[in-house]
Design brief:
3% helix; six-stranded antiparallel sheet; mainly beta; Beta-galactosidase, Chain A, domain 5; single chain; 361 residues; 2 helices; ten-stranded antiparallel sheet
């Protein structure tokens, strides 16, 4: 069945159904300054995994899963109230139109020069000052998944073209969160979407840094960056830069000081292999696997987390969370050797991201 709700609806409903999904709960999460209501939609599968999303920013708000002792905790950083999401960007949000950075916010398309809003020093980051992470998305529910929709008008953050975007989240009985990203445009434009969840597999109750998490990234190349975190244009073999090499699993903290923190894009050439990364936390036994169709993935070690007060009144300091963001390469429009994320009228941008949760004793 299908549930459709107007974004101003005050309806809170609880559904139980089988065999597809154990529980679905919809509730009010807060009210925007505009008076519009933000909804929280929570799914629970038969294994006791709980996953919730917000229609503000099409945000992944929580992922509650057991550890090796059967104790459940939330492994996504975020906030107990809407105010936290309004004050602090990107926690679990959908990023668009363009994920990551565009150098000086400038690019050319079809002979026209564009100047985007620069919100990260001299560069454009994550769609600009009012990116898709700050929009209230329309939504509908199809049994065991929720689909968000957004219309981004021509000129939105100075991008060309009217774009219709959608994000679909699905929690499966195999303990996967499946994310489908899709967009169309009536004019040639840039589209590069991702989810920006911060993870900490130790959970919220422990609130430890992620430096002891064991990381494996299935990539042999990465993109070096300049002092403003714009790619230099080089695609570098990781065998020449072992500090950034995670092909053999190692803890995040092993080389992090020498690396200056991780905020780098890893490259994936094999289109027949969608495995991107695996992260394991020994103390809890929790494991997260990332799969995606996207050609790149940003590994960010929470270098700029600076004491946000989050869930359970936790203080999210530097390295208290990590993000693995599948995407097209940063600044690809200005880098001739990079795969472009240009989308033309009549074309469909369509990608997927999968988070697989498991426990190892």
């Amino acid at each position: 069945f299908t549930i459709k709700q107007n974004r101003k609806s005050y309806l809170s409903l609880y559904l139980q159904f089988s065999p597809i999904m154990k529980k679905l709960e919809i509730s009010n999460f807060g009210i925007l300054p505009s008076g519009e209501i933000v909804k929280k939609i929570e799914f629970e599968n038969k294994n006791g995994l709980k996953f919730s999303v917000l229609n503000y920013g099409a945000t992944a708000a929580s992922l509650i899963c057991p550890d090796k002792n059967g104790k459940s905790d939330d492994i996504i950083l975020g906030y107990n109230n809407l105010e936290g999401y309004l004050e602090n960007s990107y926690f679990g949000s959908t990023i668009g139109r363009f994920t990551n950075r565009i150098c000086k916010g400038k690019f050319s398309l079809d002979g026209t020069d564009y100047q985007l809003n620069c919100n990260n020093g001299s560069n454009h980051l994550h769609g600009g000052c009012q990116g898709w992470d700050k929009k209230l998305w329309d939504w509908k529910i199809e049994t065991d998944e929720v689909e968000f929709h957004l219309e981004s008008k021509d000129g939105d953050e100075c991008y060309p073209g009217n774009v219709n975007a959608s994000v679909c989240y699905k929690l499966t009985e195999d303990n996967e969160v499946q994310i489908r990203l899709k967009a169309t445009t009536d004019q040639t434009t840039l589209i590069n979407m991702t989810n920006h969840a911060f993870f900490n597999l130790s959970g919220q109750e422990k609130n430890t840094k992620v430096l002891d998490h064991e990381m494996l990234i299935n990539s042999s190349k990465y993109l070096p960056v300049d002092s403003t975190l714009i790619p230099t244009g080089e695609v570098k073999d990781l065998s020449k830069d072992p500090v950034f090499d995670f092909r053999t699993k190692k803890i995040i903290g092993q080389d992090i000081e020498e690396a200056g923190g991780y905020d780098h894009n890893y490259c994936f050439d094999d289109q027949n292999d969608d495995f991107r990364a695996r992260v394991f936390h020994e103390n809890s036994g929790r494991q997260l696997e990332i799969r995606s169709s996207q050609p790149g993935m940003q590994f960010y070690s929470g270098n700029f987390l600076n004491g946000h007060i989050g869930k359970l009144n936790n203080k999210y300091d530097k390295h208290c969370g990590f993000a693995l963001e599948p995407q097209f390469y940063p600044d690809n429009i200005n880098q001739p050797s990079f795969t472009s994320s240009i989308t033309k009228s009549g074309e469909t941008y369509e990608q997927y991201i999968i988070w697989k949760i498991s426990v190892k004793n």
